[in-house]
Design brief:
The complex is a heterotrimer of chains A (about 625), B (about 240) and C (about 260). By secondary structure, chain A is mostly helical. In chain A, helix 2 (about 45-60) crosses helix 9 (about 225-240), helix 4 (about 100-125) runs antiparallel to helix 25 (about 585-600) and helix 24 packs antiparallel against helix 25. Chain A has two domains: about 5-285, ABC transporter involved in vitamin B12 uptake, BtuC (Orthogonal Bundle); about 335-545, no CATH class. The longest helix of chain A is centred in the N-terminal third of the chain and has 32 residues, at about 5-35. Chain A is about 70% helix and about 0% strand. Chain B has about 240 residues and is α/β, with parallel strands linked by helices. In chain B, the strands form two sheets. A six-stranded mixed β-sheet of chain B has the order 6-7-8-3-9-10, with helices on both faces. Chain B has one domain (about 5-90, about 150-235): Rossmann fold (3-Layer(aba) Sandwich). In chain B, helix 3 (about 100-105) runs parallel beside helix 6. Chain B is about 35% helix and about 25% strand. Chain B contains ten helices and ten strands. With about 260 residues, chain C is of the alpha/beta class. Chain C has a single domain (about 5-90, about 145-245), classed as P-loop containing nucleotide triphosphate hydrolases (Rossmann fold), CATH 3.40.50.300. In chain C, about 35% of the residues lie in helices and about 25% in strands. In chain C, helix 3 (about 95-110) packs across helix 4, helix 5 runs parallel beside helix 6 (about 180-195) and helix 6 packs parallel to helix 7. Classes of the chains: A mainly alpha (about 625), B alpha/beta (about 240), C alpha/beta (about 260). At the A-B interface, helix 6 and helix 7 of A face helix 2 and helix 3 of B.
Amino acid sequence: MTALTPDTLLIQALNGLASASSLFLVAAGLSIIFGVTRVVNFAHGSLYMLGAYIGWSLTRHLASFGAFGFWGGVFGAALLVGIIGVLIEMLILRRLRRAPELYPLLATFGVVLIVQDVTLAVWGPEDLLGPRAPGLTGFVTIFASRFPVYELFLIAVGPLLLTALWLLFRRTRFGLLVRAATQDREMVAALGVDERRLFSSVFFLGAALAGLGGALQLPREAVNLNMDVSVVVEAFVVVVVGGLGSLFGAYIAAVLVGIIQAFGILFLPKVTLVLIFLVMGVVLAVRPYGLFGRVAASERQRSPAGDRVLRPLSVTARVLFGFTILVIASMPLFAGDYAIGLIAELLILAVFAASLHFLMGLGGMASFGHAAFFGIGAYGAALALKVLQWPMAACLLAAPFAAALAGLLAGWLCVRLSGVYLAMLSLAVAQIAWAASFQWVEVTGGDNGLLGVWPAASVASRGAFLLLTLVVTVATLAALRVAAFSPFGYAFRAARDAPRRAEASGIDVRATQWAGFVIAAGFAGIAGGLYAFAKGSVFPTYLAIDKSVDGLIMVLLGGIGSLTGPIVGAFAFGGLEAELMASVAFWRAILGFVILALVLVAPSGIMGLFGTWFRKARNPALPA
Amino acid sequence: MTQAPMLSVETLDVHYGRAKILHGVSFEARSGEIVALAGRNGAGKSTTLKAIMGLVPASGGHIVFEGKDITRLEAFHIARMGVGFVPEDRRIFTELTVAENLAVGARPVTGGREPWSVERLVALFPNLGRSLHRLAGHLSGGEQQMLTIARTLMGNPRLILVDEPSEGLAPVIIEEMARALLELKREKLTMIVSEQNLNFLSAIADGVVLLERGVVRHIGPMSTFLADESLRARYLALS
Amino acid sequence: MIEKVLEAEGLVKRFQGVEAVRGVNLSVAAGEAVALIGPNGAGKTTCFNMIGGQLKPDAGCARLEGADVTGMTPRRLWRRGVGRTFQITAAFASMTVRENVQLALNAKAGRVGRVFGRMSAAFRAEADAVLDRVGMRFEADRPCAILAYGDLKRIELAIALAGSPKLLLMDEPTAGMAPGERVQLMALAASLAKRDGIAVLFTEHDMDVVFAHADRIIVLDRGSVLAEGPPDKIKADPIVRAVYLGAGLASGTVR
């Protein structure tokens, strides 16, 4: 461990403050965009990354102009990224204004995938070293240590921009309109304000801030392809810890995160990742709306499920399901190994998606971290097999048990919140689990994962394993259906539809939601356990944010209004992803375009689209 | 009266999703008139006002304001042409001060008349003058309703659409509201007021449009409506 | 002595140091309908939420049939027989009319923790009986989301009645309804209350509804009780007229 001298402490504190500035820029942009447009912009990290890459190219081209070239490159990058932000808003998000809250989010995730591949294609996979800032390349001596002048400059950038933004919002008409639109954008439009121009300028501002944040990192760290997701997750943490809509809160939270990181590296290098999310969890447990956030009283809650009454399966649907089960069960007789393996995987994904749908669709709790329980289930099964030497059946039982136990803990925290806050907190909880699986090498094997998780001899063949998976899947999906129509299922929906009404009718809303959370976690664990055996190995990626987003996409793609939706979504998205990954180089970009296309064309999901077609076919007079 | 109406709504249809809310609604408002949109909740009063304002899309028919077709225009465009909207549920910006609320609504005057200013509005709604720098969310319900109207007036509209102005207000406040609206009428402001309180309407409105399940059931002068026992019975009765 | 179902004494609530309710006493007897009226911001809803358990009073107490229920959660109050309807109508929109009532009946029976067994089979007849009382039996299979506003209000009443309450709290029960509907809904609630001996406390801005159906009226102003008494006395009270009632323009029927 490093020696604890006062100057190392001070230097680390200064380091923390310096990294807080860029983070604040990204978080401020995210917060402003969310405030006005209600879009959780997952692509905000991509804009940050683009700022760094574009800044890298510009500063290189302008290198001969000295200081002017560097700063011209940095601000040019911010400007260009701002314009890219406007394009994203105009081409994609504007068309989704009347869609449910989660669709724009899904669309921005599509943008993330596209930007990843575009960046890879343009700048290549290597890390790129940026230029030094002319005039700020020196060092100052603080006690006995040398400290870069550029870092001092960055420390000043944060408060300076905070002040500038504060003045912008308090002293200008633009700021006034932004604050008003944050509360009620429809009313602002009715008062004669061009909503579209306001949205576009807000997107420009937010994106340019992210781009500036990225470009300012050039002299500090190498530009790389992983900047996007890591920064956007941190920015979420900052925005939520600071309190949505509070720029001052965002700055304080950015400083908090920066300092924790700086000192974490010094004292607890093994748990730095966990530490940030732990702090977030603690803050939100004590102050559910963040340090400086207030309860959003005026927020109009809309149920993502659109108030649809659940009906028992129609005869047609029963026949279709029966037929599908028969076809899958007979696959070992005619299909090849690849197809059998793929279908088994898709069945497992269907269980995962259905468990998330239970939470989101019925409970109204959109979790951004549901993969945590999938992964914990997988690790639970793998560890039971490898460490405890349990038989496979017991391992498969251990999976949901481990996941439900984790759900019990996570749920206690999460059900206290709703909406975006819940989504962010669940993300944080999942990141803790992910970081633990990544850094707790002794138990989880870290990045190398746990290998050799092979099924028992009786189900070792692909065909036998498919049948096992099919049986478990059908049983699981049936159990979720039964739960949905049980008194508990109704109480769970009641807690979503009208929590105050439910509470005044004798339903313990929080306990019901907590129980629902645990059930959903447990079922995700079943999927995770099966997945471990299907793959023969378990990796931290099973808990990663991508996996959680995959789940969200499957649920939304299938259509959140019916219990069949997630199953269809899992097959459509999982199948597409597997096919693309196997055969196309830039599969991410293609997947991104597919997501965008589906979100723009079928905002009620595949099942919703079918429903509309079906109704139209019967009654052509109906409008779309 | 042969002068062209200020606003005419012609066979207006509106859908929410698959449900048809308005079925061919037609009526007119002449300059300086207060037209009452009456009917029970869910009859389509709010939807009619929102469709005129461009806040919900019309799926059929036309809306013509001062000779120009505004059916497909965006809300902000319609507002800039001189139409103001006063929503139900007092949708003020609670986190902004009263003065800031008024500033959001401020637009330059169109058509040579005396523009509204904070001073003139304070004269009309004295309570607001005492609270200009307080957060709007701290006002009482009645004051908030006054602010909603004042904010819209700051845009110097020639026609205002007022949605359920008396809902949830104490009787004394309702009387003040009626007084303010009559004052605005003297300023030659045209108004379409959606309302269920018949007494309130009888005190202010010139004409009445009676809506029932998205269909216009009756159009006529307020006095005829009040005198016609069977019409009133129908309005008051449950269907 | 008449048996009081609800007695509240010295209720006080402060928000950020400002006293919204300053020492309110009130009581409601079985079968009695008491209206709580007053200007906007007088503290009616705050009072209501303290009695209904949505807010904890800073001082004072509430007793239900003599037992102290101050600060109890809405859920526990409901178990003890307090039903309520909300100003902003909130039924369970993703369910049918019958399912709304069935769920309340299941909750009453402590069955909402059950993960197995279809709810549609449980308390079906009982739910229909409750719906009959509010005249919604024939709408039982319709989804709540497509109901007209007035019907939604009745569903709320049905949900509250499903708990066989001793005390019914109705916050602006007729807000947003047409005049004819208003009187009818409150007449329904009042007659059910009289028949089953339910104590009813309601807030209301429609004076026709208040004067037609309240046995007693309590007028709040700035957090305190300004006047209390039977409708005729309140109607004639000059202070109440000045602070609240005005010249009578606001009542729904034509003079």
